[in-house]
Specification:
The protein is α/β, with parallel strands linked by helices. It contains ten helices and nine strands. It has helices spanning 29-44, 66-69, 75-90, 107-113, 140-146, 149-158, 164-170, 182-193, 198-231, 234-248; strands spanning 5-10, 13-18, 50-55, 95-99, 102-104, 116-120, 124-126, 162-163, 175-177. The strands form two sheets. The protein has a six-stranded mixed β-sheet with strand order 1-2-3-4-6-9, sandwiched between helices. A three-stranded mixed β-sheet has the order 5-7-8. A hairpin with a 2-residue loop joins strand 1 (5-10) and strand 2. Helix 3 packs parallel to helix 4. The mean pLDDT is 97.
């Protein structure tokens, strides 16, 4: 199989690149499995001081792999999304999300789980699960803690899209910058992170993410089961097949 997630290490930074062009970085079992492997490898590498997650495409992540969800089901996929978020939150190295292009549904969980998320101003976001008979169950573990109660209710219930400036205002993003300045902004943050002593960075991240990690461990399994059951429901299966048919036409 063609590798969908690449890992490159240089100058203390591990860059994890999502590269699944056939489905716009949809969260297939292969992609999430490789993402978990690369996060583990980067976290265990003593040469790595910080991790960047980015996309090789003009889409950051299109959300769940609906072709997979309508064939093999989401029993594995839903738990994998919990595991991916936990792997980012619990990673001993700070994780920076470099966000360019659309971010939909489950992809928002990666952005929310990262310690620092920086987006170009043309990035867009939408929690579209409700429009497919689903709920943003697994990613609620990291997305809801980043948002105010009002912002969570609006974005989760309407499914409406919002831009990167709004995402920063709502708390989903750390920073939004002009597209041309995205790499420079990420580099500036990385330069600052690389000045930290690894022990200090590790223990500080534990303090910051203590409650978030406890919430994932307490509720992740139940939310994965809820997500899988919703994906398998007749209402969601019909909605996803209709969406896939519209995309093909």
């Amino acid at each position: 199989m063609t590798e969908l997630v690449h890992l490159d290490v240089a100058d203390g930074v591990a860059t994890i690149t999502l590269d699944s062009p056939e489905n716009k970085n949809a969260l297939s079992q292969q992609l999430t499995g490789e993402l978990l492997e690369q996060l583990e490898a980067a976290g265990a590498d003593d040469l790595v001081r910080a991790i960047v997650i980015r996309s090789a495409l003009d889409v950051f992540c299109s959300g769940a792999d609906m072709s997979e969800a309508t064939t093999v089901g989401m029993g594995v996929g839903a738990q994998r999304m919990v595991d991916v978020q936990r792997a980012i939150v619990a990673n001993p190295k700070p994780v920076v999300a470099r966000v360019a292009g659309p971010v939909r549904a489950g992809g928002t969980g990666i952005v929310a789980a990262a310690d620092i998320s920086i987006a170009g101003e043309s990035a867009t976001f939408a929690l579209t699960e409700v429009r497919l008979g689903l709920a943003a169950a697994t990613i609620s573990l990291t997305v809801i803690p980043r948002l105010t109660d009002r912002a969570a209710a609006y974005t989760f219930l309407t499914g409406n899209g919002f831009d990167a400036l709004e995402a920063a205002r709502l708390g989903l993003l750390t920073l939004t910058v002009p597209d041309a300045d995205l790499d420079a902004a990420v580099d500036t943050v990385l330069d600052a992170l690389l000045k930290g002593v690894p022990q200090g960075m590790r223990e500080t991240k534990k303090l910051l993410n203590r409650d978030l990690l406890a919430n994932i461990d307490a509720h992740g399994k139940d939310l994965a089961e809820l997500s899988a059951s919703l994906f398998g429901s007749p209402a969601a299966q019909d909605a996803m097949r209709a969406f896939l048919n519209r995309r093909k036409s």
